[in-house]
Amino acid sequence: MRKHPKRSGMQTKSAQLSAYDSLREGIAQRYPLLSDRLRVIAEFALEHPTDMALGTVAEVAARAKVQPSAIVRFAHALGFGGFTELQQVFRSRLVAGAVPSYRERIDGLRRDGSFQDSSNPHELLARFASEGTVSLENLQESVRDADLKRAIGLMGQAHAIYVLGLGGSFPVAAHLTYVLRRLGRRAILLDGLGNVLVDHVLTATRRDVVIAVSFRPYNPETVQLVPEFHARGVPIIAVTDSLLSPIVHGADVVFEIPDMPEAVLRTMVAPMCLVQSLAVGLTIKANEPLTSGATRLASSPR
Amino acid sequence: MRKHPKRSGMQTKSAQLSAYDSLREGIAQRYPLLSDRLRVIAEFALEHPTDMALGTVAEVAARAKVQPSAIVRFAHALGFGGFTELQQVFRSRLVAGAVPSYRERIDGLRRDGSFQDSSNPHELLARFASEGTVSLENLQESVRDADLKRAIGLMGQAHAIYVLGLGGSFPVAAHLTYVLRRLGRRAILLDGLGNVLVDHVLTATRRDVVIAVSFRPYNPETVQLVPEFHARGVPIIAVTDSLLSPIVHGADVVFEIPDMPEAVLRTMVAPMCLVQSLAVGLTIKANEPLTSGATRLASSPR
DNA sequence: TGAGGCATAGAATAATCATTCCATCTGCCT
DNA sequence: AGGCAGATGGAATGATTATTCTATGCCTCA
What we know:
homodimer; alpha/beta; Arc Repressor Mutant, subunit A; Rossmann fold; 2 domains; five-stranded parallel beta sheet; 14 helices; DNA-binding
């Protein structure tokens, strides 16, 4: 139904014009031929597309100061079977304006290259690279500035920064720890060595902060540890793939980096980037402009 | 709220948070308390907000593979009077996203050009993300297919794969090791623990392979170890930033990933991607199509 | 093993909604 | 002036839709 609007009339004149745009043109075109009441509706429709998209016939009629039946007649006059069909076009505008969403993005990605033949190593590389690019773009759009600032604020106040990331997320944790230390912060990497993970909980206080990184399927130890930190009152910054993740509960700031539906393999590219931004952002806020800190970092061994 | 980090868990529904955002958080917060079916709906709602906004109860139920009544129960569980009320919130997201689409897009474009103001965390994030994107593009172009194939060939013949990456390159090494092990390869991460790095050289043979990752300024231990492996006749795959790098000598395959001149901080995004391609490419060549390996990987804890 | 409490599915119901119909009105032509 | 065609308002209708209800299944705990 929604997928195939099935408009009987009002076919798009040019393929590149959106259904909504061509509808606007169609309305403008027929405007001189319309009756008085229908003109009122036409004006209202062009001026309040959102109302047209979301309202009921009665609501739209009331707002346009006409009778409900006139609305239906208006739809008929444009070649639609009824108001419902007309409304679909207005709704398509809202959908198009909404955040692109991963799925659509990936669809575009798939269209670009012939990703099917993965037996060629170079195509595989191209595929991972593309997925990484998409995830980076998405990262920019999905991360809220306020969250970044709050996270950096928490890190700035913290006496020590505990970094928790196990399994596949460990590289992210390691990178964050590395950068933080290079920038002069007291960072503690919880690496699970010697099975003393729980002991760290006992040393952390509410004056510290925990940055927990975990993606589906969530590492059991990470899932277990986060609530224990929370119970001790340690502020928590969570980097995960969904608000439904087990490490979200109790977190003060949550960075949601959704998985790409068709990703062959989680790339960790976006989390790495985010985490790096946190560390460097912290330094910039606390100290001096970026260049100075970057210089120090660049001259350290890798 | 922010002034006094009292942390009641989850983010406070401050005024600047949109109704939609706080709904998302509300759903996440209650998620653990929900029943099975309601959790399915919660996941669907967070993943398909547009469907929630525009669909009827029956349609949403069908797409989420649940009964219509469950949808209504879900709305009740969140404190709404019914699905209609819940839907209003999802619609508000569409409305909010639609109107500023033009104006904001232009604002965003203008922001793109001025990366100078790095004091804003979000701009910093955008900057890192952009650098990552560029480095990924460069990676695709600069890496030669023949090198990939030779590297994969060496790894395929190897009895064990030694992964050497210290300092800033350690996350790359950790990631490679993780993926290799998940794919059933014998991978040995040289992490420097216990100062027994040199001992690994004694166990490696010409039937093994070393993948060494190091970037300027090169980690001394890595620089020292690579020739020792070479002296024992162990094949070497080098991932570094220049052909003049100290780990290039004696390497059988060299992947050169140059630093970006204006980069604030090396992002490690490209090496991560390359290394992942090597691991997955190895599996594809040796075994079956990608999907199988990816499935196994996806079901492992992170 | 059996009883009790929840969760669920599916049908029944109540509400809402789009659409149609018809009486009335308006303007126009003869 | 009278008749006609189209337009309009408002109520009636029929369809769609949200919501409620109840029987059934499932799990838990005694």
